Amino acid sequence: MEAATSSRIISQMNFYQNSASLRPGSRLTSTFHNTSKISLRSNSNHKTKTAITALSLSRPSKPDFVGRTFCSAGACTYSEGVIESHSQTTDEKLGVILLNLGGPDTLQDVQPFLFNLFADPDIIRLPRLFRFLQRPLAQLISVLRAPKSKEGYAAIGGGSPLRKITDEQASALKLALEAKEVCANVYVAMRYWHPFTEEAVHQIKRDKITKLVVLPLYPQYSISTTGSSIRVLRDMFRDDRYLSRLPVAIIQSWYQREGYIKSMADLIEKELQIFPTPEETMIFFSAHGVPVSYVENAGDPYRDQMEDCIFLIMQELKSRGINNDHTLAYQSRVGPVQWLKPYTDEVLVELGQQGVKSLLAVPVSFVSEHIETLEEIDMEYKELAIESGIVNWGRVPALNCTSSFITDMADAVIEALPSAMAITTSGTASEEADDDLFGYVVKMKYTVYVSTECELIAAEPFIMLL
What we know:
By secondary structure, the chain is an alpha/beta fold. It has a domain at 260-395: Rossmann fold, CATH 3.40.50.1400. The chain has helices at 80-84, 110-118, 134-155, 162-179, 197-206, 226-238, 241-244, 258-272, 292-296, 302-319, 344-353, 371-387, 403-416, 437-443, 461-465; strands at residues 8-10, 32-33, 41-42, 68-71, 74-77, 94-100, 184-190, 211-216, 248-253, 282-288, 325-331, 358-363, 392-395, 448-452, 455-459.
């Protein structure tokens, strides 16, 4: 087995570690499978940066991927032999649940999909006094936003491909686990559209799963993605007698895994060969953005983990003799608040002005094709780049079902098994401060935003009511 065990895992699930995480939508049917400036960096000059948040890792000069798992209690070391020799008892039923955001299957699904998003009380957080407005607000905002969102989905074929691709990833993961003599049921759990997290969890109960591994399909942790989905699981597991006793391991982030890093490097190396002068091509990493307040006020480790991820990918490319300049920018910002910088659209214009002629876009925070790769990058940003003077444009495809990636995810699941423990919860963090009317009024000065299949949507509820 290729050793790659530095995924971060919660061995004992305390769901309140990032209290700004979000909560789910509701409907049920089941799918089940048996820095504002441009930074043009030469890789050789990139300095190691120590992560400053609880969920970030320090960058190793040479990653040690063997037998090491990052748990909530610290670094836990397992021997390589223990990982490789894992075998199931005859009465053990292993389950793996893949977390993703979901997306509308058809144009008719767009408005109800948006309603599910805005009906989430962790997206538009109202104090108890005003919670009766939650669903009316969600209905209003989703109706107003739907026409613009439909245009984007119409441009990529009339709906999101995310469910189909995630189903394929689940099937491929199941086969990869079987190849390693691990039998598991693999479930797909979407946040805001079918198959919902609730559907997957109900199926897990019906199947009498005895041990569960939670695998978010987000390489880097953010309170708006992985944290959001974990909140859903917490709410379901907390009051259920069966689920609260179920041993569970959560892989919080896995951007630093050797298999993932090498898979990304493989795709980049392959796409560079298409350019007339590969060595002169700018490698342009475009990551999904989040508001700066998430990082600076809520302690979201996303930015640190993203920078760590880019560093590791470039180190791998350098080991192959690829020393191209590269830069990282953040896409999909909306609203008046400040988002992580530099912004993708602004960077593309500046690169053109600086004389860059060849550019390879790398969507680094996505492992599946969806609206932000197929429409925003492939259409909007490509057009902007060409208008800005970039002549040769390319885009690295999402990992989807790349065999090396799927194999590494199977390894991650196996390595997580020793850390599985019953869930513990404490307090009700989501209720804290929500009853503070003054705090609520202050919050409403800012844009309320939500991640929509990774498309971010802005709304200022009081303004939109006028």
